Task: structure prediction
Amino acid sequence: MISKNKLKEFSKYKTSKFCDEDNVFVVEGTKIAAEALQSEFEIVAICALESWFVEYRTLIRKKVSPENTFEVTTAELERISTLKTPNQVWMLIKRQSNNEAFQSETNLTIVLDKIQDPGNLGTIIRTCDWFGIRNIVCSPDTVSCYNSKVVQASMGGIFRTNINYTPLLPFLDSCTNNNTPIYGALLDGENIYNTQLPASNAVLVIGNESKGISDEVIAKITNRLTIPNIGRSCESLNASVANGIICYEFARLNNK
Amino acid sequence: MISKNKLKEFSKYKTSKFCDEDNVFVVEGTKIAAEALQSEFEIVAICALESWFVEYRTLIRKKVSPENTFEVTTAELERISTLKTPNQVWMLIKRQSNNEAFQSETNLTIVLDKIQDPGNLGTIIRTCDWFGIRNIVCSPDTVSCYNSKVVQASMGGIFRTNINYTPLLPFLDSCTNNNTPIYGALLDGENIYNTQLPASNAVLVIGNESKGISDEVIAKITNRLTIPNIGRSCESLNASVANGIICYEFARLNNK
Result:
């Protein structure tokens, strides 16, 4: 059972403004909710159908106190959900400034320069998660990683990556000072098929969907990489596909 | 100038039903419109702002007769557009059954088993275009390649690929009869980093976003490929990222 007041309170989190203010984010659907239950993140509240509570009883008991769980009807779930067809469960989760909380399986850090499409950011997080890349640095004008579409597209990757928003130029300067090579996906770089990538620390910059990497950031890149345009056709690859291919090539070093 | 009747006629193409009936599709925005002007596809009608017509005058004159071009105002463009913010130009284009119209730069054919997300299909077409893969075979329950989101996400790739919708089992049987190896992206296949891919004809099957490749299609696969899950974390890669990585690995053979 859930009171009208609680329903009203939770409904406001459809708006990112209130999520930002309260330092929380929403996840919806059985798959990602199960990942949240197994994550280190603090769950503030759960609204779900009775059947869902029955299925996940044991995991819930370990992690969330009963006064923060609310059994709802399908109609009530529709009222707080941002999905067209809500899927059994809605969760409110505390944001976590995950500074180095996770241990990377690789030495690669991904740097995103103004990624704007939530699907792309979510897919990049998912890909990093797959390849064991735990550190992602975003320019302040990259879409929020707590955007609901980003969270959904990350397929749980949001719970297993350190995502920091910070001005890129000082961050890249600190990399240069540490002799960390800065790779960038550009159209006029070295052919990636012929490039020997380093096993030591490295940074990879992925640029904006339509404008690519900004000029100031390009100036910091030490190693320009290009995925050859065999078809000599479209102007570029999708940002999350380019990221996937280069992460895959770096992960080759970790392949056993 | 455009008449009220014409505006009304064009407005109906917001609905895919009418596009299907008339065997046409819509493209919107300056970038993809410029690609359409340079493609082999027949342009049925153009509605655009005056400034756009001025910019592309020469290309338009070569390809579209004046009675099929309509100068519109921003308000009129909004009426026929499906975009939140229409971008200068709207075009109606004849569908083309592009059977083998384009020459592949590679010997790879992509087979899609029930790809449902328009963004994924568009990105897969864009990636194929990049790597010079011209042949894509889709199961009948794959999202239509003429869906406006697919067309936009393909970034012009729709004009440079042969996309056929056909039942997959007979198609794959014909591949087997021709001794064409059928690769599939699966979770339990051979590690792609250690696999020697063929330079001769090959087929790559990419499965549905949540269910993967269907059992009947899996039964036809001769070479199971896996991109290793270095992070031991999320369940799978995004379909268009997995496609991108494997296409990239096949394209290595064409790298000069």
Observations:
- The domain at 4-94 of chain B is CATH 3.30.1330.30 (60s Ribosomal Protein L30; Chain: A;).
- The interface with chain A takes residues 105-106, 119, 123, 126-133, 153, 155-157, 160, 191, 193-194, 227-238, 240-242, 244-245, 248, 251-252, 254-255 of chain B (CB under 8 Å).
- DSSP finds eleven helices and ten strands in chain B.
- The two ends of chain B are 51 Å apart (CA to CA).
